[in-house]
């Protein structure tokens, strides 16, 4: 294996990621206000901002879902059992004793098994739950006889929001472990990350996609 810096995050994926960050933070902030945690923004404007950010995020997710399936990138989020326990042990206690990360990023697999399983759960269960409950919550005035289940819808929406908030907190925390915050964030800014390449993969990139490789040091 040869270590090289390869562009593993294309421009759209990085744009999608950072727009998602901004919109989710706006939703969490306004959502906390709507639930009485703070009163920085009056209730009316908070509802409006929350709704605008939610619709913008839903639109972004629709485009991202289309991109994931048309480019085949969705395969990156299929979880694998192999290596998951080792990665979990590393995050649980190995990182505190200076152990090396057990997962080495490879060309066709940029997420470790635990990351892939987490993203899979978010994209297939948590995100749809917050989409559906959010749209139902937004349109409950049109339900008629079904309006009595608004409490259930609201609780599902709130639970999904708390799961996403927990994910954000853990995600940011994990950026600080291992090689440090800057080395973890830089790939999502530049698109390039250090990857283990087989001789065949390196030859393919050099011949067919040389722009995805940074010059060897």
TrEMBL record:
Record membrane topology: Multi-pass membrane protein
One GO-annotated biological process of the protein: respiratory electron transport chain
Chain coiled-coil ranges: none
Record carries keyword Transcription: no
TM region(s), chain numbering: 21-41, 47-70, 124-143, 149-176
Superkingdom of source: Bacteria
Cytochrome b561 bacterial/Ni-hydrogenase domain span: 8-191
Keywords: Cell membrane, Membrane, Transmembrane, Transmembrane helix
GO MF, one example: electron transfer activity
Transmembrane listed as a keyword: yes
One cellular component term from this protein's GO annotations in UniProt: plasma membrane
Cellular localisation: Cell membrane
InterPro entries, A to Z: Cyt_b561_bac/Ni-Hgenase, Di-haem_cyt_TM, Hydrogenase_cytochrome
The protein, known as: Cytochrome B
């Amino acid at each position: 294996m040869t270590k090289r810096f390869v562009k593993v995050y294309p421009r759209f994926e990085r744009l999608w990621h950072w727009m998602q960050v901004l919109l989710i933070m706006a939703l969490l902030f306004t959502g906390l206000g709507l639930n009485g945690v703070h009163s920085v923004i009056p209730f009316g404007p908070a509802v409006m901002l929350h709704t605008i950010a939610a619709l913008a995020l839903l639109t972004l997710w629709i485009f991202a879902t289309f991109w994931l399936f048309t480019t085949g990138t969705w395969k990156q989020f299929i979880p694998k059992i192999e290596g998951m326990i080792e990665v979990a042990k590393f995050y649980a206690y190995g990182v505190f004793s200076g152990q090396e990360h057990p997962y080495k990023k490879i060309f066709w697999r940029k997420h470790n098994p635990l990351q892939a399983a987490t993203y899979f759960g978010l994209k297939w269960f948590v995100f749809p739950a917050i989409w559906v409950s959010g749209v139902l919550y937004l349109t409950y005035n049109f339900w008629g006889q079904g309006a009595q289940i608004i409490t259930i819808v609201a609780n599902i929406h709130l639970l999904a929001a708390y799961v996403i908030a927990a994910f954000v907190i853990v995600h940011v925390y994990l950026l600080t472990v291992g090689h440090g915050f800057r080395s973890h964030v830089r790939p999502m800014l530049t698109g390039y990350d250090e990857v283990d390449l087989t001789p065949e993969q390196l030859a393919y990139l050099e011949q067919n996609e040389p722009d995805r490789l940074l010059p060897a040091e």
